[in-house]
């Protein structure tokens, strides 16, 4: 293998010749620039330089092999350059944000003090690097839908039934025929390694240990192969959340890889065609710049008078190749033609589309607005579920219906199930759990929910999940005053 | 009687041989470990040691005689050991929480300044040991139901009637045929001695003096015998709140004892089969640990990485032997077979169960969600009462209906009575009153309510309780802005 | 006239012989003790002593002549005693509250800065002695009705009409046939002299100057004779707010005096039979005690352990002789038999009673809950008006309908008039205006309202009051977020 | 030209002879005093003195030529006086408010950090002179309608549609046949030069660059001639917002000038007949007086005891000559008789008037309550639009319907368009944008909205504006909790 030094590499910093260093290896990424999901400008910002720190936490380990042709793996950095980089890194003072995180980790509460989902979120938010926090926590525009997703649950009250035999109460159920210890799954979410070095594997192992099912995102920070390989048992089920590439051939290749790796279902994401406006994420670079420079004067900025609007956040780059022309007529039959896996539509946001999905023969529907991260003022999924139950109860017989968004309590899970949902997904909550406590946090979160679900079942007078029924829930005409922290 | 020293006793600290010291006496509680309502771990934490301080405030005086076989009453602590314990106690500095309470007691306002129920609550909250406060004040999950119980009353407004003769207005009524000065009773509540050394006897004496009726909890911190003996007159009525033991024989024995002691009715509690999630109570040990160690470093905790979820609070241990398989068909006839006392179902939370209770021939129903301490998002009792009145008015003719939860004002009492309730129960309010001012506080609280009820009757244009009618109340379609302190 | 010294007088301090000094004169009030509207204990607190400071601001000048028989006017204080009292008064330091008021008066904003009703209230609240503030501002229980009275207006929005000729817009109207510059009157309120030395006369003169009508309360701090004498013109109309004495003869005498003095209508108050629970007023003595003793230790209080509940406030004493047995059948015909003045019922709080009042042939109805000072959770008058308009529009043809409570803006007045009210009353707002600026404040307040009403008429597309109509108002189904200060 | 000195001019300070200096020229304005739209007192406050600083920022450059007869242009100030004025100005310290603005400008964030409409508003509010802020930001009475205009949008949620082909999504549309890059126009607003020296021309140039249309107010701080002359291309469309003068001849002259200058439509303003109560604006002089005199004692004020109520703010003076007697029958035909331009009625506030406007043959309707600046409690335009759509859908076929008030997000625009609006207007937002960043700010604001609109269209499943439909929007029965800053 040839070796290169920093000076040589630094000269390749243009769109016509763009090299980068990653983990002391040198790559020519010129041809890939315009295929990069985040657009070429992201790479150009690092052209001719060491890109390791920026690259590693948000890309699967096999991304370079997959996307950069072998002949563009130019060779290694020479020893002198390696030492120079290492030295530079040592000299470089820790950032204020890194110091903040270090201090926070020292004060991390013992897991025994985490007694509900909210505790987990609050704890993780203190521990996360700001960039990760901004990506995980951000939601669209004014976060109305993000907040209303959760608030919707507060308008549904119970009619608990008493004097019913409930001993031996069992919280287990199935999703697409696969057994689960509680009717909850880990919803697909990107970039788990921003929060914890082991990333999505924490979900894989935690899910196995706790008896629930993980959905793996196309945008996971580990490759779907790595995650499949991390399964604790050959029959541990895994679901895949697909962002369909606009090129059908590319998309078909991915689907077939997934099927070959033993994934058990495909959740086709239909609510995320283009990057949305997640302002916390967009503002994160500004926030960090100000945080690091506290007390010093902001340098003038060449962008000061620009008229164009950038979306700068972490999220922006993940989805620019998504297919914007999917239709019920074309896309579902095409998917059936390339895979035998069950197909679930994730991102249905109104009753009409739920009906169309069922008519199109989908195996499941996720009523979801992407956790309030896409279109603000999309109706809360629980409200859509309630309407669907009122207006088209036949849908629940044709297909399994799930919801995600805003679930924080066992009572939330039970409300959704009473109204016809087969299971519910949690995304951010599991991201927070693994960020703060790794695999153990994931298991702990399931235990919390299981305890709350079991208690709720006792109180509602049921001893198995299938006894939950719509009569046990009432949509009230007032709005409870929620705890301030929500 | 043999005597033992501390060293001897300390050796019996395992599940196969477990001794404890209580009030300078030595008990072998090995056989009882797994019958303890709070589970064996509670006792094991004190095994081989003096358990007096932890034991006394939350157990009736006769509990040891009742539950520990005579031969397991091993004997006395020897004199040297008694002195050693006493010395240790003297040396032991007062805790920060004890000092806080002492200071608060010095600033206790005179009773003349307590002019409403809220004042009483606020005063008591400042005076209570944190452990007691956490047990009394805590509610399920996010306290939504606890708060909404009270907030429900704010959506009901009056249609006061004028130009009606109201002189000689009389606030008295009856409950199950027993006379009461106002249509209010002291609802059963556990562990009154956590707040005041005389505990439940404050209720007994205060109720007599004020002319109202006390309901005694199975979990009272005095035995039901002691409370019965504290009656001020042989005909002072007393109600009993029964947590039915899962073993019918044990349960029957308790019921018959109750009847023999002269109790006048049994309120069978049906909403509390298993321990619920009361987070303030659960967090109390953590809170106190942090409070005592303020400014010092928390020691590392062996539970730091556990995945299981403990409920640590005071409440947890009270109910683990409750019958989880009661039914209308089985349990009511069985109770009729063991007692001639009136049977009231406490904890009905929806219209359907109220109808079933009436059909089952119960003598009364308490619409109650246990003060929001069991299932969060259980409908507020006042809303259930309103629905019951709208949908099944015949129930009020078949049986007496009571409600508890969220009552703080005479107007609250009147709203419930207009909608058909025969009387209302207050639990926490009386706990706070006796904690802050003993028996006198209990009487004062009744006087406050009586004054408010009488004024309300004047304003509504009625001169006796039975003139209250549904037309005097309207459920409005807006939510008043409540005072911040609620 | 005989004279007495302080030592002699001090001996008459029992219920069997009770003397007091008022304005250096000596009265034997023994026989009057139990006729005192505030009860004997109020006088007994001053027995054998100089009662001037407590007596003067809350009693009409002629009260002594009226209630104390001539032979009980014993004589004068001797010169030495007069000097002694004067000296004592000089030595006596000003109270903290007096100093606070003095300072506040120095910072009173110029009237030009008072641009709305809320400004007037805020300004006055800073200037008032605490006792006056507590009496004026207090409301029943938790002030829900007081707040909701105002909040009700916020749920009514306008349908303004454009392209209508509105030049020459005229805000004047009539009440019971008497001309008024705006459809607003000064509602009867007690104790104006607590806030300003000239008291109710500020209303009389201000009303004349601004062209509106004053209603005089039975509990005014000037006698109705004095107020009648203060009229600026012989044809200035005056209304009288009657609290009917339980003794018909006493009541008839008062009514006939009123008629003889030239009052033009009688507003019979029916919502205030007994003293209500106004907590700010009740707490005022405690508040002042703590305020004056700031930093010092509270002395122990003999009432510390009392069980009875006192209402200590200023309001309590005003109404204990009110007739609690008025009825439509008896009282209206009786009033017609003793007076030819128009009879208006003040304090109607529901539709049913409005209908009964109209059927009883009353000349007017005031939908009022006494400014939220009597029964908390009485429906807001605007809501009652709206219902009355929906359910019994014929009432508006039979009788004039007024409302009071919660009016702060010209738009509030217009909403009430659109829904059928003939005029609206303001009480507290005028109390605040005269307290802060005397007669000028009263005129200024009318000018503010007139400007707002005129602007509103322009915007609604009407040029005279009678063009206001129900179609211009809509009750919306959401609750606006009101400014924090409300 | 004759010259005058300061002493000579100072003598002409009465209503019978009133001279003022503006830009070193001397004018006799005696005859104009009572034609001044703000009333004579505004000029009299500057009589005999240099009025330049007060005059310039709020009057078009040609106002003197237009309103003051040539013979009243008396001549120039002499050189000595010019120097004296200049000297006086130098000596005069900057005001605290000027210093505050200077400091704020130094900390103005780069435009790249302005990522939504709210950011723009917040930034501008920090930079504006207080007088400008008070004029721009103020709203009627308690700002209820101003706030509810925005809050109304929060009650409308989307039914986003998935699996629809949306690539090539196009945000452009037309208004009255004129092309616009997004369905948004700059609504007419007065006095842009209060916020930026170039004033309305920033709108003209920014609108051209961003491809949208500007509406020019009668009360613009540049003349409509100047603004027309600033067009970037001869075919750049411009709309005119007309406040019709009460004198038809004066009004016709203005309309014909407008037409001759090439304006493309007339928006007749019908909701602003008389000055309204904008309290922030009214209080601005008091606020500034206190701000400048911080720490010093307020001088006593001759107005301290006045009873009359002044409206002192900037807004007051603009509209006192408006026609208060417009009607559908008279005014529309009259306008048709004097112009061939399309006529749009701006300020329709209820369904009934929208129907009448359509019947009167108007070319368009703006549902508007003047941004909440006129009648408080006027219904939010979005609610009127919703009702119009429900009750009179035919109106949308007869005429174009626009709305303004409360729009801050692309989603707001889309909601209005789904419900039938052809376009929406923003006023304050553009004032803030040009105040903070001039023309560039205007373009940036359009880019923000365009990005949000395009994203919303993608998410709703439409690729052109005309595919937006009522089924995509639902009015919900709860009120989202809005971000605190709203």
From TrEMBL, chains A, B, C, D:
Limits of the FMN hydroxy acid dehydrogenase domain: 109-478
Similarity section: In the N-terminal section; belongs to the cytochrome b5 family. Belongs to the cytochrome b5 family.
InterPro entries for the chain: Aldolase_TIM, Cyt_B5-like_heme/steroid-bd, Cyt_B5-like_heme/steroid_sf, Cyt_B5_heme-BS, FMN-dep_DH, FMN_HAD, FMN_hydac_DH_AS, L-MDH/L-LDH_FMN-bd
Keyword Zinc part of the UniProt annotation: no
Cytochrome b5 heme-binding domain mapped to chain residues: 1-78
Binding partners and assembly: Homotetramer.
EC number of this enzyme: 1.1.2.3
Catalytic activity: (S)-lactate + 2 Fe(III)-[cytochrome c] = 2 Fe(II)-[cytochrome c] + pyruvate + 2 H(+)
Signal peptide: none
One record GO biological process: lactate metabolic process
GO molecular function, one term: L-lactate dehydrogenase (cytochrome) activity
Compartments where located: Mitochondrion intermembrane space
Cofactor(s) for this UniProt protein: FMN; heme b
Keywords, comma-separated and alphabetical: Flavoprotein, FMN, Heme, Iron, Metal-binding, Mitochondrion, Oxidoreductase
Protein name: L-lactate dehydrogenase (cytochrome)
């Amino acid at each position: 293998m040839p070796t290169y030094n920093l000076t040589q590499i630094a000269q390749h910093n243009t769109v016509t010749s763009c090299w980068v260093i990653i983990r002391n290896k040198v790559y020519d990424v010129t041809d890939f620039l315009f295929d990069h999901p985040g657009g070429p400008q992201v790479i150009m910002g690092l052209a001719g330089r060491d890109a390791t720190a920026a690259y590693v936490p948000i890309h699967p380990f096999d991304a370079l092999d997959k996307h950069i042709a072998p002949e563009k793996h130019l060779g290694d950095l020479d020893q002198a350059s390696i030492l120079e980089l290492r030295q530079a890194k040592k000299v470089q003072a820790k950032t204020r944000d890194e110091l903040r995180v270090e201090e926070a980790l020292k004060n991390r509460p013992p897991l025994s003090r985490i007694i509900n989902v909210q505790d987990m979120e609050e704890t993780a938010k203190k521990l996360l690097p700001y960039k990760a926090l901004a990506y995980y926590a951000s939601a669209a525009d004014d976060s109305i839908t993000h907040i209303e997703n959760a608030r919707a649950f507060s308008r549904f009250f119970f009619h608990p039934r008493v004097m019913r035999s409930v001993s031996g109460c069992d919280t287990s159920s199935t999703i697409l025929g696969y057994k689960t210890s509680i009717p909850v799954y880990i919803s697909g979410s990107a970039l788990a390694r921003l929060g914890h070095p082991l990333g999505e594997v924490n979900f894989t192992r935690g899910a196995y240990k706790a008896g629930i099912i993980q959905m793996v995102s196309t945008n996971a920070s580990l490759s779907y192969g790595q995650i499949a390989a991390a399964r604790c048992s050959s029959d541990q089920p895994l679901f895949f959340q697909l962002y369909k590439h606009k090129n059908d051939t590319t998309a078909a290749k991915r689907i077939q890889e997934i099927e070959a790796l033993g994934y058990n279902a495909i959740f086709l994401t239909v609510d995320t065609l283009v990057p949305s406006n997640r302002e916390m994420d967009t503002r994160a670079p500004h926030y960090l710049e100000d945080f690091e420079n506290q007390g010093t004067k902001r340098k003038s900025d060449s962008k000061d008078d620009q008229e164009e609007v950038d979306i700068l956040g972490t999220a922006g780059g993940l989805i620019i190749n998504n297919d914007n022309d999917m239709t019920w007529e074309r896309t579902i039959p095409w998917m059936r033609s390339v895979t035998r896996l069950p197909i679930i539509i994730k991102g249905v946001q109104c009753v009409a589309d739920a009906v169309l999905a069922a008519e199109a023969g989908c195996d499941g529907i996720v009523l979801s607005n992407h956790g309030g991260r896409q279109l603000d003022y999309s109706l809360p999924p629980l409200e859509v579920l309630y309407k669907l139950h009122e207006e088209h109860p036949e849908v629940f017989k044709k297909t399994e219906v799930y919801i995600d968004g805003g679930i924080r309590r066992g009572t939330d899970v039970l409300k959704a199930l009473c109204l016809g949902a087969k299971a519910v997904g949690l995304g951010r909550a599991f991201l927070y759990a693994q960020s703060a406590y790794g695999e153990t946090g994931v298991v702990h979160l399931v235990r919390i929910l299981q305890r709350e679900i079991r208690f709720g079942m006792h109180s509602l007078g049921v001893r198995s999940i299938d006894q939950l029924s719509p009569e046990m829930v009432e949509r009230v005409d007032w709005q409870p005053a929620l705890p301030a922290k929500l």
